[in-house]
Design brief:
Length: 186
C-alpha cells in the first residue's frame, strides 16, 4: 500500500506543479498559481503521515518505509530545483520566457555546481536518515526496524559514491572543452 502511495505522491507532485504552471502562464492567475506551487510540499506531508500511521498500527518496517523516507528527504533537497526546472521550461516554451538555465560544463563553475548539488544531496540524505532514525526511535523494536537501518546504510553508500564520483572527481580532473587549443576557463 505504501508503494502505491509513494507513486501517487510522485504523480501528484507533477500534476500539482503542472497545474500551477498552467494557471500561472495560461490563465495569468498569479496568486492561484502561487498557492498551488506552495502546496506541493503538502504532498510530502501526506506521505510522512501515512508512513507514521502505518508504523503506529504495528507494521514491521519494510523497504517501502525506507523508500518513503528517501523520497521525502530528496524531495526536500531537490523539490525546489525541480519546480524551477519545470518553470523555466514552461515559461520558455509557452510564455516567451528566456531559454532555460543549463548547468556549467567546464572550469570552476562546473566544480562549484557539482559541490553545491552534492551538498543538496547530503541535505536530502540527512533528512532521510533523520526520518529513518526517528522511525527507529518511534517503533522502539529492533525486530521491526531492521529495514530502516538497512536504508540508512544504502543511502550512505549512495551519498559517498556521489561524493567521489562527481564533486571530488570533477575537482581532481575537471572536464575540458573538446577540440580547442585554449584551456578551460577557471
Amino acid at each position: 500500500m505504501l508503494v502505491a502511495l509513494i507513486i501517487a505522491c510522485e504523480v501528484a507532485f507533477w500534476v500539482v506543479l503542472g497545474l500551477g504552471l498552467l494557471v500561472r502562464y495560461a490563465l495569468r492567475w498569479r496568486r492561484v498559481s502561487t498557492v498551488l506551487l506552495w502546496s506541493v510540499p503538502l504532498i510530502d506531508l501526506v506521505l510522512l503521515v501515512a508512513t507514521v500511521l502505518d508504523l503506529r498500527r504495528g507494521a514491521t518496517a519494510d523497504w517501502s518505509h525506507g523508500l518513503a523516507a528517501a523520497y521525502i528527504g530528496f524531495s526536500v533537497a531537490f523539490g525546489h530545483d525541480m519546480m524551477r526546472w519545470a518553470d523555466q521550461r514552461y515559461a520558455h516554451r509557452f510564455a516567451g520566457g528566456p531559454p532555460p538555465w543549463k548547468p556549467p560544463r567546464y572550469g570552476r563553475a562546473k566544480i562549484r555546481y557539482e559541490w553545491v548539488t552534492w551538498l543538496k544531496a547530503a541535505g536530502g540524505w540527512a533528512v532521510a536518515c533523520g526520518l529513518l532514525g526517528l522511525g527507529i526511535l518511534y517503533v522502539d523494536d529492533p525486530a521491526r526496524t531492521a529495514q530502516l537501518w538497512q536504508w540508512m546504510g544504502r543511502l550512505t553508500v549512495v551519498i559517498v559514491v556521489w561524493l567521489v564520483g562527481w564533486p571530488v572527481w570533477v575537482t581532481l580532473a575537471p572536464p575540458r572543452p573538446k577540440h580547442t587549443d585554449e584551456p578551460a576557463p577557471r
